[in-house]
Amino acid sequence: MSTPQTTAAAPTLGHSLKHLAVHLLTPLLMCLGMALAYQGAFHQPEPHHLKVAVVGAGPQAHGLAQAIQGKAGDALDVRTVDDRAAAEQQLRDRDLVGAFVPDARHPELIVAKGNSDTSVVAATAVFTNVTDKQGVPLHVTDLTTLAKGDPTGQGLFFLLVALSIGSYASVAAIGAAGAGLSLRIRALVGVAVSLVVSVIGIVTAGPVFHVVDHDYAAIWALGWLYSAGIVLIGIGLHSFLKKWTTLALMVLFVMLNFTSSGGIYRPELQNGFFGALHGFWTGAGYLEGARSIMYFDGGAGLGGHVLTLVVWLLLGGVALVAAAMYEGRGHRSVETAGKSAGTPAGTSVEAEEEMEEAVGV
User: Fold this and answer.
1) At residue 142, what are phi and psi to the nearest 5 degrees?
2) If you average pLDDT over residues 118-130, what whole number do you get?
């Protein structure tokens, strides 16, 4: 005698559209976030307290500095520096964007393009206006030697992009394919993956494209520290956010990170929000640290930038501790429920959550 077969009822149109709408929410939020972040950070670059100097100790230099400051207002922060040597030192310390040496026939602007090419362009425009009124050309002297493969000095920013995407995308893979592993194993895998990401970064930026042409070990170590912070934070957050982890990481390490890193415009050319983030966000820590190593002989605040990356790595450790406590509490709840129902412990809640994440529900 045959047994009757039942077929699952086809989902209604309304249910299918609701299911589709839920899945479209993430890319639409990404679109909105990227539009707000990138256009908000880059749409209207204007100087804000751009630090420049007039070289000279006499009344002529002071008068010129005051005249430029009075005309520019808050756009510039103009000071005087007694001599050329002091001006060059402040440029190497990254305390200045440009130093103008007045001369009736051969005026000169001293800059450090390794600090930020776009900021140098803004400073050059200011003093070109001054020399144009004198009817003489402005000679620009760059104290830094940019890498052969990075004539604009922005190649390090694109290395930052590669490291960031490799790091946060790895979190999604570890969360989905490594769900059955303990948190400790996932964290160890994350550290190993961040090592691979950093090696890929330095190999492509170094021997392949020559964006980095010296201090390979230091740039690589900085990249590993940066990548490990992102990966560990992501692994920790995944325990709480599940399918929303990628969106959260994009907010933290793309939308807010790339825009505040100083890779395109430094804080002196951005609005206050992104300029403030630059002071402590992880991408700025990596990029400015790499610039200090590459173009300023490991000075110019390198220690502070390394400290920023260490703090973000420690935040990753805090996220892992919180995740361990959360997952441990979940295991205990499952074991209790399993004993009460007479079913094997640890098979219901975690399996259901992982299945939902795998199918994107």
Assistant:
1) -100, 125
2) 92
